[in-house]
Amino acid sequence: MNSKVFEINALHFHGNIIDDGWFLNIRKGKKPYMLAIMILGEIVYWYRPTVSRDEETDQTVFKQKFKADKLQRSYKQFAQKYDVSRDVVKAACDHLVEMKLITTEFRTIVVNGSALNNVMFVEPVPEEIKKISISYMALQDTRPRYQKSEETPLENTTTLPLEIGGDSPEKSEETPLENRRTYTEITTESSTKNSTDIKSKKNSPDIRPSTPAPTGQSSTSSIDKPKEKNTIPFAEIVNYLNEQAITDYKATSKEIQRLIRARWKDGYRVEDFKKVIDTKVAEWLNDPKMNMYLRPSTLFGNKFTDYHGQRPVRKGVVKYATPQQQHSRYAGDNDVKLPF
User: pTM here?
Assistant: First the structure.
């Protein structure tokens, strides 16, 4: 293993997480609204609970990081952190409110006997944030659910069920991070195992012809389902999209895999996905208003059949983006002075 991996691991980074989908959806004009994206990442960080286990009850508990019922932040605090003016921060927060990604509430509070007016409290809107995100992982109910202990109450501590969002375990399954393997490793192992099984069956004298399933029962065994799932070339499809649309989506994303799997069940195959990608890239790549929709949620969604049947754009009509255009598409917000 590369020695730098261990060195980076020793740094123990912690803090904000920014989803790739935010750069495509939170925008100011033609560019990602960088300040608004960073402020949203800051708010989401504070609303991500710390996880611990109670020694006496052996219960998993989630504890919030702030004391009040909502996170208290001011425009001045954000301005000092990101080295920008208060008005620029207010405009970014207003943009997030307009997109319904956060809510703000201004209260009058009493501190040490003195009343403070217009104190801002912010709160994220998880359902709206989920719609613009592509890299989140939904926790699944893989362990027993615990109830909050009445004997050992903890301040600002709540025991939550582990299933807090996303698809059901039947539709989306997450593997623990330490047990995950790459798509290449899984595919290679699967191919080797299948080849070995076929050779064993050919050499075995006890092979019997398969018998038809009884009436009313499916002839597909439960073993066939995982094989069908593994044969879907998620990486090939997503990598082709990244190459043609100049994007950087991950084939391991559960949401992207769900969309591809749904179209695969409809009977579409790799060439069909490539046809849709080619058609929409030729149509949208150089269109400032439409190039943000060159994403899996749009291309592989409910309109996939319409895109597949669309007449291709004639060659030579649309040029692909030049390196300068590619750079400008992902450039930061030049109106905001950022600390990097």
Answer: 0.42
